[in-house]
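Look over this one:
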Amino acid sequence: MAKFNSYLLGKVKKSVGNVTMCYTNKQNIAKAKIFSRRDNPTPEMLDQRAKMKVLVQLSRRLIPVIRKGFVGMGNGTTSNAFVKANQVAVEVDEKHVATIVFDQLKMATGLLYTPKVTVTYASESKMYSFEQEMQEEEEGYALADDKVYGVLLETVLNRAKIVPLRDRGENGNTSYALPEDWDEANVKVYCFATLKNGSAASDSRYLTV
């Protein structure tokens, strides 16, 4: 910062190059602009950015799912909770390219018990068959009227479908057709449960087809 007097310029208030001039306390003052410096990011920072990018992009396609599966998780949004919970489900290579490990991906998280569900797929009919086993009630963790959901995720299109299954207290089978334009080879399947009023959820489970 420098003080100067100028009869030609009078009271100066402008910027020239990297110098800003102003008039205060009956004096002209010249200040050098301060430009913020950004150091080169570390490999760890680049890895973290890559993880965040792929998870944020995926979360935008999964909003209907994660609004059910991450309800009540912390003070942030369900999307933020999804991204935070799935940091461990992303691998980053030496070029800082991130890849989601889909069998580790969480579609839901919470204190409720995960439902007992298996799934098979028939290529001829293009139908998924969810087989569900009844679970006994346990206060605070499992109720007979808990809602159970399957999730189909097409990993190339990054599109998902929620499949409402039977209540936790029921046995039975639910069929669901492969959505149009989906490739069965790219589909991953998950399940989770919520309270009837949707205020809490279980952890999700990856289902082997």
